[in-house]
UniProtKB/TrEMBL annotation:
UniProtKB keywords: ATP-binding, Nucleotide-binding, Transport
Name of the protein described by the UniProt record: Oligopeptide/dipeptide ABC transporter, ATP-binding protein
Originating organism: Marinitoga piezophila (strain DSM 14283 / JCM 11233 / KA3)
A single MF term (Gene Ontology): ATP binding
KW Nucleotide-binding (keyword) present: yes
PROSITE patterns, per the entry: ABC_TRANSPORTER_1, ABC_TRANSPORTER_2
PANTHER family: ABC-TYPE DIPEPTIDE/OLIGOPEPTIDE TRANSPORT SYSTEM, ATPASE COMPONENT (PTHR43230), ABC-TYPE DIPEPTIDE_OLIGOPEPTIDE TRANSPORT SYSTEM, ATPASE COMPONENT (PTHR43230:SF3)
Every ABC transporter domain range: 2-247
InterPro entries in alphabetical order: AAA+_ATPase, ABC_transporter-like_ATP-bd, ABC_transporter-like_CS, Oligopep_ABC_C, P-loop_NTPase
Classification via CDD domains: ABC_NikE_OppD_transporters (cd03257)
Statement: the UniProt record of this protein carries the keyword Nucleotide-binding: yes
Length: 314
């Protein structure tokens, strides 16, 4: 459904002394129909930028994104946004507070499905609200500030259902919700996959959420996808030293912090050439200084960008 090919995005800032950040660096991956793919990495690794690139909120510096085998910039905006929608971390910031929910949905129809007559709109809104576990009577006629974060997040998902979207970018959508509401919203995503055959890019920094919901995983470090594969395969056999570090750093219920615990983030800039993770990697060797982070196939369900795996199956 979505194909990302050699995608890069460099941001520049500053007037006199320009600074450049390569937020996404040569990413290549696919999201198949009806699959949930989680994109996992620490803060600043480029996850949101990938989501924004897919949603055409920022333009690629290099590479391309195909939706149904057509470059996303070849679609007109109405056609594209009927099919591809996004839900973001802060549901309060996603709604205009001066409009009631029904006005907000009406404006959505006006901009993306104007041909649907007013008489049919309410029925479509009510069905979508029920599909995300909301009672239309408790929602219609309310302002966004009269609803909880969990209700607003469900409303944003309902938006995609109203449009009958086929692809959803879900960017940290449950990080502001309490634990039980989180599971409810995750289960709604699972339902969308099964009942509506929706494909979802689920962006998170939390490995356990990625495991719970996704079929496939992308692990991102400083703009590069360092490992990807079937979720169960990655969990049973994480290969990249960064992925292994992520697994080791998940706090568990039976573990308490003690003073032997230290942060693995050194704050140092990564090396200018070679592997970006080398300065944090316990296995780094001289060869890592010249490695260009190409991806190696471990098996059909697993790829890794680490020189340790060069020539193993290639
Ligand atoms: N508009 C922008 N202008 C300049 N730099 C930007 C811009 N947007 C993002 N960046 C930089 O790009 C890098 C990746 O940012 P991004 O928001 O994609 O990371 P992230 O993995 O989603 O982080 P988080 O989990 O904290 O949201 C960061 O270094 C960020 O500072």
């Amino acid at each position: 459904m979505i194909k990302i090919k050699n995608l890069s995005k460099t941001f520049s800032s500053g007037f006199i002394k320009k600074e450049y950040v390569k937020a996404v660096d040569n990413a290549t991956f696919e999201i198949e129909d009806g699959k949930i793919v989680s994109l996992i990495g620490e803060s600043g690794s480029g996850k949101t930028t990938i989501g924004k690139l897919i949603l055409k909120l920022v333009k690629p510096t290099e590479g391309e994104i195909l939706y149904k085998d057509r470059n996303i910039y070849d679609y007109n905006p109405i056609e594209y946004y009927r099919n591809v929608q996004g839900v973001f971390q802060d549901p309060f910031a996603s709604f205009n507070p001066i409009y009631k929910i029904d006005n907000i949905f009406d404006m959505l129809f006006n901009s993306l499905y104007n041909e649907i007559p007013k008489s049919e709109r309410l029925g479509r809104i009510e069905k979508s609200l029920k599909d995300v576990g909301l009672n239309p009577k408790h929602i219609i006629g309310k302002y966004p500030h009269q609803l909880s974060g969990g209700q607003l997040q469900r409303l944003l998902i309902a938006r995609a259902l109203i449009l009958e979207s086929k692809f959803l970018v879900a960017d940290e959508i449950i990080s502001m919700l309490d634990a039980s509401t989180r599971v409810d919203v995750l289960n709604i995503l699972g339902d969308l996959k099964y009942k509506n055959k929706m494909s979802i890019l689920f962006i998170t920094h939390d490995l356990s959420l990625g495991y719970y919901i996704s079929d496939w995983m992308l692990i991102m470090y400083r703009g590069t996808i360092v490992e990807m594969g079937d979720t169960k395969e990655i969990f049973s056999n994480p290969l990249h030293p960064y992925t292994q570090m992520l697994f080791d750093s998940v706090p568990t219920l039976d573990k308490k912090w003690d003073d032997s615990e230290t942060s693995t983030e050194t704050g140092e800039e990564p090396p200018k050439t070679g592997c970006k993770f080398a300065h944090r990697c316990p296995f780094a060797t001289d060869k890592c200084k010249t490695y260009n982070m190409e991806s190696y196939t471990v098996n059909k369900n697993h790829q890794v960008s680490c020189i340790k795996f060069a020539n193993k199956n290639n």
